[in-house]
Design a protein that fits this description.
704 residues; mainly beta; 4-stranded antiparallel β-sheet
């Protein structure tokens, strides 16, 4: 399981707390249950099991089976796969799973890996193909290696390598020959894959990604650079019949009406058809969302054409060129970020874009198709949300903003760069973020950004004091002057074990590490280790509910959810079993806990957490100033829940300290302190009252 490079901001929506919580003698049993998606999947291949008219699909999440033409899917294997082949004579399914060849004799219920004891070397295999004419299974590996089996995969033999073919893409049978499209051109075999030779010289060295033979005997090849090649003399000579720049033509198929279909990958995919043997090509409507095409198959029994793309499987009605989405139940999209908006909507980010649910995961809608990773969300207020997006393509990367609860998104800044999440200062209300090199600030809701300092890292702001923290591979730092200068903080963990930073509503800063949790309640002056259950490690995904309880994920495998009811001092196991690939946590105002996963959509707690007792909550420190605004002096009133040393400090709008006092061991109850601002200029000032367990802040205005 992998983790995002940058921290995801887990957001707990603010709402009026229930006045009375149900008191339980013992905590209820909570666990995770799946929501209804979102189930987008990178579908690499799909095959019709011709003897049964059933479908088998292979995705980045595993192998899936459908017995109703793709309307519903059943998980057969939960491992990433690339390619399928079906031996209809022996009813054996072959698959490249984790770049190794596997087979199944029971429609994918169980799988066996073919290892070197059968003569198949340990290699990375891209394609497995079954030739019905020669009754052979052929595996194509790296650097043009080819192996074949004549006895249903029991024994394997090597053939000559494909010249200059770093990888293989597509295989077809043509009468008594096999033809394969590779990164080095076309190759053919007339003896069932025992030996291979280049097919003509005109396409030698051209990276080809698809090959098709029409009923008239014409060969159609699609290239990585978007050209369609056509040959009417068995591949001796070729002509270019179409050019679609930046569209690798990955897939092709033939329907019963002799219509040719072709689809492309790339950033701007095209879906094509030809009704005159490949001489002319016209574009088809593109299924929504717009995604690159990986494969096309035609089912001669149902007369359906199926397109595999980066968002699932779509069925084409060739009569009216309409599409049906058949992705219900297919999984494979990594949900690497999750968040709850201030209005309570649930957001998750995938490679395909941003999904949104307004009913706690019962239904999902894709709000933006980005073809880029959405690393994290930042919900600033009920209208303003940011998404940090990275794909490696300059025309997609950057910071995206939504002004309507995540329904519409606009790229606004840092194009071509990877921004971190956005945080807001509790006093100045300015926004801050970083990219790979620089920290920026915005004072107009993210419309424009200005340079702050030449630093980078994972940002967090103490919502009580306004101190800014930054986590990098070199350690963690703090700034008291709104990011202009930085101080290194004391640290007890090795640099390589640092994971993410989180600040709680009560002003505690947490460093989540591989080994555990470190926290500070005084802006980094002193540090302590949280008390964790035995066996807890690799802490990540921290979030907080409106009762100030904290939650986090623990572990890489056999993950569990931990909970703290005392603001991180101690933790206990809250949910003992999570999805195996749980990734991040978020909680909404109804106390429903959500988890994103790498391959299984979004999970939620089976019961809202409002049944929990509000145990061990920190006593609250309350403050108030009167008069405010004031002319020269004002009185600060504060209430202590228990005896404590008290520190009071006052800063100006730039974060410069103008007054600080230490009041030793103040008794419980109401206390007063008079602030004299007669020697200060008119303007806004900010006070902070801190004890060993609590911090409170406020704004005062001096008017002369």
């Amino acid at each position: 399981m992998f983790r995002a490079t940058f921290r995801f901001l887990s957001i707990a929506c603010t709402a009026t707390l229930l006045s009375t919580l149900c008191a339980l003698s013992a905590l209820a049993q909570f666990n995770f249950v799946p929501t209804n998606g979102p189930y987008s999947a990178i579908v690499n291949d799909v095959k019709v099991l011709s003897s049964r008219s059933q479908l088998m699909a292979i995705t980045t999440a595993g192998v899936f089976f459908s017995s109703d033409s793709g309307y519903h899917w059943v998980t057969r294997l939960e491992q990433e796969g690339w390619n399928l082949a079906y031996d209809n004579n022996h009813e054996i399914i072959y698959a490249t799973i984790l770049e190794r060849i596997h087979y199944s004799t029971d429609l994918g219920v169980s799988w066996t890996r073919i290892d070197s004891t059968r003569g198949l070397p340990e290699d990375n295999y891209y394609i497995v193909y079954y030739s019905q004419l020669s009754n052979r299974v052929i595996a194509f590996g790296t650097m043009g290696s080819v192996y074949y089996s004549t006895n249903a995969g029991t024994n394997w033999f090597g053939s000559n390598s494909l010249y200059n073919a770093e990888y293989c893409n597509f295989v077809i049978s043509v009468q008594d020959s096999l033809i394969i499209a590779t990164s080095g051109g076309l190759f053919f075999s007339t003896n069932g894959g025992v030996s291979w030779n280049p097919l003509g010289n005109s396409l030698l060295g051209i990276p080809l990604v698809s090959i098709l033979r029409t009923r008239a005997g014409t060969l159609i090849a699609g290239s990585e650079n978007g050209r369609i090649y056509r040959s009417t003399n068995h591949g001796t000579t070729w002509s270019i019949q179409g050019f679609f720049p930046n569209c690798p033509l990955r897939a092709s198929s033939l329907t019963s009406s002799e219509t040719l279909l072709m689809g492309s990958g790339g950033s701007f995919p095209v879906y094509l058809q030809s009704q005159n043997d490949g001489v002319n090509w016209t574009t088809l409507p593109i299924p929504s969302p717009v995604m690159p095409c990986y494969n096309i198959i035609y089912d001669s029994l149902t007369h359906y054409s199926y397109f595999c793309n980066a968002d699932g499987i779509f069925r084409l009605n060739t009569i009216n060129n309409s599409w049906t989405n058949l992705t219900n139940g297919l999984r494979g999209s990594a949900m690497i970020s999750i968040g709850v908006t201030k209005r309570g909507s649930l957001l998750t980010g995938t490679w395909f874009g941003i999904f949104r649910s307004s009913d706690e995961g019962q239904s999902w809608s894709m709000e933006d198709t980005l073809s880029a990773w959405v690393w994290g969300f930042s919900s600033i207020d009920s209208n303003l949300i940011f998404a940090s997006v990275y794909s490696g393509y300059a025309n997609r990367d950057g910071l995206y903003r939504s002004l309507d609860d995540g329904q519409h998104w606009t790229r606004i800044a840092f194009t071509g760069a990877l921004p971190c999440i956005v945080v807001q200062h509790p006093v100045t209300r300015a926004l801050y973020t970083t990219d790979q090199t620089t920290m920026y600030r915005s004072t107009n809701s993210g419309t424009t950004w200005e340079f702050v300092s030449q630093v980078f890292g994972d940002l967090a702001i103490n919502p009580v004091t306004g101190t800014i923290f930054r986590l990098t591979g070199l350690g963690y730092f703090r700034s008291f002057d709104l990011g202009r200068t930085w101080q290194p903080l004391h640290q007890n963990s090795s640099m390589e074990s640092l994971n993410h930073v989180f600040t709680s509503s009560q002003g505690r800063l947490f460093i989540q590490t591989f080994e555990g949790i470190e926290y500070t309640f005084d802006d980094g002056n002193t540090w302590q280790y949280s008390q964790l259950p035995v066996g807890s490690s690799y802490i990540d995904g921290m979030c907080e509910d409106d009762n100030h309880n904290l939650y986090c994920l623990s572990g890489l495998e056999n993950q569990r959810v931990l909970r703290s009811t005392d603001q991180g001092t101690s933790w206990s196991v809250f949910i003992d079993e999570t999805p195996a690939d749980a990734y991040q946590l978020a909680i909404n105002s109804r106390f429903v806990l959500f988890s994103s996963t790498v391959r299984h959509g979004v999970y939620r707690s089976n019961t809202p957490l409002t049944m929990l007792q509000r145990e061990h909550l920190l006593p609250q420190l309350t403050t108030n100033c009167y008069p405010n605004p004031f002319n020269s002096t004002t009185t600060l009133h504060y209430s202590l829940p228990k005896p404590s040393d008290v520190t009071i400090s006052v800063t100006d709008i730039l974060g410069r300290q103008v007054k600080e006092v230490l009041l030793p061991l103040q008794p419980t109850g109401e206390r007063k302190w008079v602030f004299d601002g007669s020697n200060l200029s008119s303007g806004n000032y900010y006070y902070q009252v801190s004890t060993s367990t609590s911090i409170a802040t406020g704004k005062i205005t001096l008017v002369k």
